[in-house]
Amino acid sequence: MTDRVLLSIGGQHMEAALGHTFERRNPVTGEVVTVAAAGSVDDAVAGVDAAAAAFPAWSSTSPAVRLGPPLEVEQLHVHHGSELEDLDLVPVGRG
User: Fold this and answer.
1) pTM confidence score
2) Mean pLDDT, to the nearest integer, of 23-51?
């Protein structure tokens, strides 16, 4: 199974503007593990522009609200750490 990895810009998941991709392969089997969008300068500029547009609202939120997403990720690691570790090992041929 090959996973598709898209860019995340302004809260949207999308292909690269130029449509370019790159493959990550399992070095042991040669199997394609992921096909990812290969961002260009235009994609990077779009990301910076989206971040700049989001900054005023983000900066007015409390630290407690900003801490929510990192804490959610931590909980995923606590409850699903071994599964995540297994997935992380696939691209290096150990999963």
Assistant:
1) 0.71
2) 94
CA distance 95 to 76: 19
Residue 95: strand, helix, or coil: coil
Count structural domains, the chain: 1
> What are 55's strand-pairing partners?
none
pLDDT band at 92 (very low <50, low <70, confident <90, very high): low
Q: Which of 11, 93, 94, 18 is nearest to 50 (CA)?
A: 11
d(C-alpha 83, C-alpha 85), whole Å: 5
Domain that holds residue 28: 3-92
Both tokens of 51, joined, read 């971040």
Q: Show the DSSP H helices in 1-95 as ranges.
A: 41-59, 63-66, 68-89
pLDDT-derived band at 91 (thresholds 50, 70, 90) equals low
